[in-house]
Amino acid sequence: MAHQIACSLRPAAAFLLTALLAVSVNAQSSDYYQPLNQRTPLGQTAGWLTHVHGDQSRWLQPVLIEVPGGGEVSVYSGPGEPRAIAASPAMVAVNVGHTYRLRLDGMAEFPDAELYPSIEILDRLHPPAGNENRYPIPVPFSRGDIQQALAGRLVTRVIYLEQPQLAQQLDPLKREIPQSVLPSENALQEADRLGRPMIIVRIGGRRPSRFQTSSMFFGTGGAVQVRPGEEQPPRVTRTALTVR
Amino acid sequence: MTSNCVISNFCDANKIFRFPLTAIAVSALSFLSACSTPSAFISASGQFQADATAQNSTAADEASLSGDWFTFAPKLESAASVENEAPTAGFVRLDSEASSIRKAVLTRNSAGEPPAAKIVPLSHQVARNDCPTCFTPAEVRIDPALGRISPADLYPDEYLADGGDRRLPVHYFAGDRQGFDTEDTVAEYTDHNGKSHVRASNRVAIYSPRFGSVRVIEGADSGTQVHHAVKTTEFAAVGSLERDEGIQQSVKEDGFAAFGSRRRADGAEAKKNSIHSSGTSRLQQNDKIDHGLQAQATDGMAILERQQGAEFHQKLANAAIWSRDLFPKLSGATSQATETKARVTAHATIGIEEKRAEKSEIHIVKLADRETAEAGDIIHFTIRFINTGDYDLHDVRVVDNLTPRLHFISGSAKTNRNGDVLTQPNGEGSEILTFVLDGVLPAHESGAIEFDVRVK
User: Fold this and answer.
1) ipTM for the assembly
2) Which of A174, A183, A232, B62 lies 20 to 30 Å (CA to CA) from residue A63?
3) pTM here?
């Protein structure tokens, strides 16, 4: 009788043990505390990472800003006039550790719309010399994002550098594979788990006011440089070995 | 001075170290004879020897990297051997300042002075003349202790790497190949003694970053909307994430079988067994030193390596200094009740003198035809292999597990030797290419395999 009971409990014990192991494995992957998230005040995440990475003020990171259907992109790094104005897709080089305010207008698909998203530069790339403009960090604004922002919602995108060993089948950014998290979750932590967070993009309906907007609304004073129409360096190709 | 010629004089160390007394006595004789034959790596017969170190040719060009990264296929005027060619991997074009710093460090090292404690900081940039606010992205970092560190080592997530032997070394256990991760490229072969071997190639790094984004929508009515919380674990291929986090993978990596295999196949693991640590810290050891004696006890199988031999010799020298009036002796101790008999007879050995002295093995080198790539670009890979010894090699296979972002272009594989090309999915969105060569690879002959992949 006791033996029969023991035999009947064996599958349950095995299941329970497996479940406990699975929980422990999953817990190990997310058992660290992430103090930063998408709701961290603008500029704080970049400021913290600057302390971690060190001063990188002498490096200008190319960023490619794309608006659906085309439009005009203005880049502010402080109050006053925009530091750069370019047509989409606009490539500008900016400082790591700073925040910038963009103005999107003249969008073909949203002709009367004017948005002021912000970008917070967290990290930089390290391309081979002469190839920095070929590998900008992409900042795409999708139709869905713009529609949500015009409807009064706040859309936050954390753009991360994908880990090659964990690469997806399709390009996760260009193919617009939806990778969304709930507002109660930490998008920055999720992006950190998938790769290396590079830029935080916030798109909302907020517009600057002369009387109410703080000077930090337009950015933290980083450098801006437009890279329009730079001649791309020829791709390095070599003749393959002649195989006998 | 090396005192481990004993091992090299006996082909099968297993027989020797089954009897510790014999081992100690033979070791003592080796010290006295002061022979200098280098120690040989002893492995159990019939088992694979996994060599996880990449096989690299020495890069002659100063602009090349540390030797583990090759991105260019050098132009060859003739069918030069792999050993003779010097892949000039101009992966990072050093500016003049970085080159001068590196030369200064090398000069000091060659003069015997301690290396200059000067590291080119990663944040230090050199302005280009045509763009005062633009700076050279990254230079090769020079570390006094580690030497040259390439950007591909510092920022691996920005590169597509293929080749080498990542993570767990490739090995065979119970007939199954294990540790064959994505990016691994190995050559498998059987030598003239019937032993099977695995050799890893060098790693090739191609700059090709790719980005993704995580989106969150917040608003006054966001709570009423249905947001499908899609985690990347749901999107990524089951093989890719689960391989890294799954229990199965952990079990494989931590399993006793894997380490057990390593302990048999790799002499490095033997360094960590209790023999080496306990042999130097036992009270028995100290007690015997006080008496001017030097003893080293072994509990079983052991491998007398160069380092241990040097330590042993040093201890013997110390004992002789401290007890110079007592004439130190070497003694061996064993806890086993054994009886060793030896009979020395004069006899003649008749046989065939084997004039082929150099053991055969494969050197494998992987090359790519570009250093940067974007999605949709085609990369042409070349894998060259050469039999460096005097014996023919059998059952030669070159196996390449492509990284997930590379897709093999069917029909693009070519080889200059007779053989077959097999492809199979690797479970992580890419393919495993297996090139099986027909027949043998004769001594001092080489071959090459070329194929194209597309970057996703």
Assistant:
1) 0.80
2) A183
3) 0.58
